[in-house]
Amino acid sequence: MITIALSKGRIFEETVPLLAAAGIVPAEAPEASRKLIIGTNHPDVRLIIVRATDVPTYVQYGAADLGVAGKDVLLEHGGAGLYVPLDLEIARCKLMVAVQNGFDYEGAVKQGARLRVATKYTECAREHFAGKGVHVDLIKLYGSMELAPLVGLADAIVDLVSTGGTLKANNLVAVEDVRDISSRLIVNQAALKLKQDRLQPIIDTFAATVAARRD
Ligand code: ATP
Ligand code: MG
């Protein structure tokens, strides 16, 4: 049995065409069925639907052989025990610093002010501000980061931005790039050795599909 860990939403939707290229077709959509284990047209390939932040954990412990996880998630997880052979170039977005419209971020940084930063991405944020020599107090949140500056919880947030629509709707502006984000294929290292004959063709097909999209 080959088990592939995916999160529902954009990662599932953007992985379906890659699976199709490898001849793997899910039996149903996770939203429709609410099932957490989804079969495929291959009797020995199944998908498991887990929280985006949990995908590396399932693969690390071998409960899944393969998984698709955002670089943001991998940076926070640390990536122990994972082989990351491929940038799938899907679910692209940017990790950015954002503040409430009118907040003088540049000025605060220049003055050496101690900034309060709310984020789900504490590891990435810590590294980013340390690299700039900016002192920050990090406040860990698990969602709706956009709210924090509006109610005085934080001066700034570090969050994922794609269109900027959510920032704009909440009177926030992006002031700095932290890094580009896309989703990666992750592989359990032991499974790669034990099931190489079945995993390598999937990895190779994904790689060829991603490369073909580029040109
Ligand atoms: P939830 O939104 O249910 O709390 P989540 O935020 O962990 O869960 P998603 O929003 O589905 O999960 O995000 C999954 C992955 O998709 C993220 O880890 C990130 O890599 C990527 N992603 C998140 N937001 C965006 C976005 N706006 N545009 C493109 N990719 C994104
Ligand atoms: Mg989300």
UniProtKB/TrEMBL annotation:
UniProtKB keywords: Amino-acid biosynthesis, ATP-binding, Cytoplasm, Glycosyltransferase, Histidine biosynthesis, Nucleotide-binding, Transferase
Top-rank EC class of the record's enzyme: transferase
Pfam families (alphabetical): HisG
Subcellular location: Cytoplasm
E.C. number: 2.4.2.17
Pathway the protein contributes to: Amino-acid biosynthesis; L-histidine biosynthesis; L-histidine from 5-phospho-alpha-D-ribose 1-diphosphate: step 1/9
Transmembrane segments: none
GO molecular function terms attached to this record: glycosyltransferase activity
InterPro entries, alphabetized: ATP_PRibTrfase_cat, ATP_PRibTrfase_CS, ATP_PRibTrfase_HisG, ATP_PRibTrfase_HisG_short
Chief location bin: cytoplasm
Domain ATP phosphoribosyltransferase catalytic: 51-206
Its job: Catalyzes the condensation of ATP and 5-phosphoribose 1-diphosphate to form N'-(5'-phosphoribosyl)-ATP (PR-ATP). Has a crucial role in the pathway because the rate of histidine biosynthesis seems to be controlled primarily by regulation of HisG enzymatic activity.
Membership in a protein family: Belongs to the ATP phosphoribosyltransferase family. Short subfamily.
Annotated domain remarks: Lacks the C-terminal regulatory region which is replaced by HisZ.
Protein name: ATP phosphoribosyltransferase
Organism whose genome encodes this protein: Silvimonas iriomotensis
